[in-house]
């Protein structure tokens, strides 16, 4: 069944996109006659060496490209992209040095700060000089537990200007969660804040920071940003941000590094053990983000780019790369619902946000709160909404076009920390189909495999990538043999990246994601993506959110659905019947849960993703290995020893 087209660019809009300009450039320089996005995508996959070289040239990457584009292109893992190239990440993000606004910060408490590109460069120079004097060298790790504020971006840019490696998390992480991450990578410098604001509260984290600092034994200096006004007294080896910066230094020099030198260390969610440390390279991250921002999102200097994210989610790293396009980045820290659901939309109106990024859960919660930005806010500049983190239900497409804005490109995007970018994402030159991601990313041979490892379309299966690409991780930290890295992505299908998403390629080459494949339900041997159930259940007004698992039962598996309901609502027999009827009518009888149970909360990671595997472990009486990865680990208790599951 072909899904409804929700939005379609007209011929003038298509012609004006950088995607079209890039295709015309390829036609002229590579002697092609490409006319559609599918043509361009097929060319980019069949000639990936030419494609990535073209991206380097088209976006005028600063650095030495070298002679070779790729060595062992067909080896997964093992391909080496641009093995002779040298460049610096910060140098490419700070290519502009003028009075155009680079960063605007809006805090939950009403704070507003801003920096132009020239001012940003000056601040980065001051911090980089101090860090260099403190002994920070290429390859050293700088770890930050920070809110999404201007100083965090200055910290990352100063770190990477020196060829050092950046890693960050948000200040709401617990002590063990931070130590489990940063303890593995042995940072030399630790950057943090005195406290932060969330949901109307001013939270002092000085005790937590001291406990973390005590366990990070390799840290030689701790830098504290006065963010929440607590003004802590600091001991030896600690310094206040403003006192630490070397204001006498105005010249910013960049240490150019090999293309595949480490840039970021990012972490898996860590709910099944200590988080994996995923190492991303300088050049691959830069090229992929240039492609995604410049072509797939059509960002340029006129844009105000916003993504609601913390510094513990890869969307922060993705957002920051918008500086390379010369755009204005809008940073927000706090609760998106404080003091009410209008919080982010008032900012969008005031700051003239043109590209608004958020999570699928946020849009769902906004609709449940019955907030309609189209009625409350003037959003003439808004031209694109991006959403990721979980599957965007078709009903959320309806909500966006009905209650936010009819004339915009809604791009559901999907990839992850593993590639610090997207496998499937948006395209301003293509229509938006209800419930679908618009396209597969250029240069990536993304397919869906059935259980036999055969490519299928219009069938559900494993999302894979059959070719190498520059932003594949360099590897995992402290995984010298590469075994853990290989087992994570390449063990299932030979010479193919298996991403762990349960997905489908549609008739018009869109993508539908049905959830994580390790959370797929299997009653009676029929595979069901959890998102197929969630989208039906959450149509019901009484249900705020839900989580489904497969429970081992009588030599088979049965579907168990847990629901969090609106305040004061109880799970009556009538409501259970309504839930089952909606699922049966809109999915299949196989999707109907055997058991429905009410819970007060649903456990999620700190980046907001619900954790089906952890709930499944609790239901089966197994130990959840790392509850410090969860934002609300206490919620697991709602699932333990449930009488209805005995």
From TrEMBL:
Keyword hit for ATP-binding: yes
One MF term in the entry's GO annotations: acetoacetate-CoA ligase activity
Domain Acetyl-coenzyme A synthetase N-terminal stretches: 37-92
Keywords assigned by UniProt, alphabetized: ATP-binding, Ligase, Nucleotide-binding
Domain AMP-dependent synthetase/ligase: 95-467
Domain called AMP-binding enzyme C-terminal: residue spans: 540-609
Top-level taxon: Bacteria
Alphabetical GO biological process terms: lipid metabolic process
InterPro entries in the record: Acac_CoA_synth, ACAS_N, AMP-bd_C, AMP-bd_C_sf, AMP-binding_CS, AMP-dep_synth/lig_dom, ANL_N_sf
One Pfam short name: ACAS_N
Family in the record: Belongs to the ATP-dependent AMP-binding enzyme family.
Protein name in the entry: Acetoacetyl-CoA synthase
Native source organism of the sequence: Pseudidiomarina woesei
């Amino acid at each position: 069944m072909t899904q409804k087209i929700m939005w379609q660019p007209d011929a003038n809009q298509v012609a004006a996109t950088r995607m079209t300009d890039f295709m015309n450039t390829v036609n002229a320089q590579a002697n092609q006659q490409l006319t559609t996005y599918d043509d361009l995508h097929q060319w980019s996959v069949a000639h990936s060496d030419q494609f990535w070289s073209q991206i380097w040239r088209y976006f005028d990457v600063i650095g030495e490209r070298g002679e070779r584009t790729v060595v062992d292109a067909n080896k997964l893992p093992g391909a080496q992209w641009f093995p002779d190239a040298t460049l610096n990440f910060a140098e490419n993000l700070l290519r502009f040095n003028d009075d155009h606004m680079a960063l605007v910060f809006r805090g939950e408490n009403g704070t507003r700060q801003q920096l132009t590109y020239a001012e940003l460069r000056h601040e980065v120079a001051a911090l980089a000089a101090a860090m260099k004097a403190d002994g920070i060298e290429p390859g050293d790790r700088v770890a930050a537990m920070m809110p999404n504020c201007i100083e965090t971006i200055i910290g990352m840019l100063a770190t990477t200007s020196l060829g050092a490696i950046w890693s960050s998390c948000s200040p709401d992480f617990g002590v063990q969660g931070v130590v489990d991450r940063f303890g593995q990578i042995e940072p030399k410098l630790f950057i943090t804040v005195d406290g932060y604001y969330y949901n109307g509260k001013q939270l002092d984290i000085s005790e937590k920071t001291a406990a973390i600092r005590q366990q990070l034994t390799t840290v030689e200096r701790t830098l504290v940003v006065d963010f929440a006004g607590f003004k802590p007294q600091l001991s030896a080896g600690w310094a206040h941000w403003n006192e630490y910066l070397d204001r006498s230094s105005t010249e910013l020099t960049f240490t150019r590094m090999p293309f595949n030198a480490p840039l970021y260390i990012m972490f898996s969610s860590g709910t099944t053990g200590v988080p994996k440390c995923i190492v991303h390279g300088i050049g691959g991250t830069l090229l992929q983000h240039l492609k995604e921002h410049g072509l797939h999102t059509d960002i340029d200097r006129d844009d105000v780019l916003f993504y609601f994210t913390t510094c513990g989610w890869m969307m922060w790293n993705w957002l920051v790369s918008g500086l390379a396009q010369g755009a204005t980045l809008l940073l927000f820290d706090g609760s998106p619902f404080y003091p009410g659901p209008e919080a982010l939309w008032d900012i969008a109106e005031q700051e003239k946000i043109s590209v608004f990024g958020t999570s699928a859960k946020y849009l769902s919660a906004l609709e449940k709160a019955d907030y309609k930005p189209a009625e409350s806010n003037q959003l003439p500049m808004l031209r694109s909404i991006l959403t990721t983190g979980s599957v965007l239900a078709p009903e959320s497409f309806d909500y966006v076009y009905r209650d936010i804005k009819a004339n915009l490109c809604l791009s559901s995007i999907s990839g992850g920390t593993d590639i610090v970018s997207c496998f499937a994402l948006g395209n301003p030159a293509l229509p938006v189909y209800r419930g679908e991601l618009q396209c597969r990313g250029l240069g990536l041979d993304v397919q869906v495999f059935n259980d036999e490892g055969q490519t299928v379309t219009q069938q559900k299966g494993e999302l894979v990538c059959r070719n190498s690409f520059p932003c594949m991780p360099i590897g995992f930290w402290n995984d010298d043999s590469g075994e853990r890295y290989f087992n994570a992505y390449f063990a299932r299908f030979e010479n193919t990246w298996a991403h762990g998403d349960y997905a489908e390629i549609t008739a018009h080459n869109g993508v539908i994601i049905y959830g994580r494949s390790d959370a797929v339900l299997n009653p009676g041997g029929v595979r069901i993506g959890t998102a197929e159930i969630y989208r039906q259940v959450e149509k019901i007004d009484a249900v705020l959110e839900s989580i489904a698992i497969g429970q081992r039962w009588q030599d088979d598996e049965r579907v168990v659905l847990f629901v969090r309901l609106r305040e004061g609502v109880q799970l009556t027999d009538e409501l259970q019947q309504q839930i089952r009827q909606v699922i049966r009518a809109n999915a299949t009888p196989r999707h109907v849960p055997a058991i429905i149970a009410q819970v007060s909360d649903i456990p999620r990671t700190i980046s907001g993703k619900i954790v089906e595997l952890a709930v499944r472990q609790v239901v089966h009486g197994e130990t959840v290995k790392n509850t410090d990865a969860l934002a609300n680990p206490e919620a697991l208790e709602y699932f333990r020893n449930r009488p209805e599951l005995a």
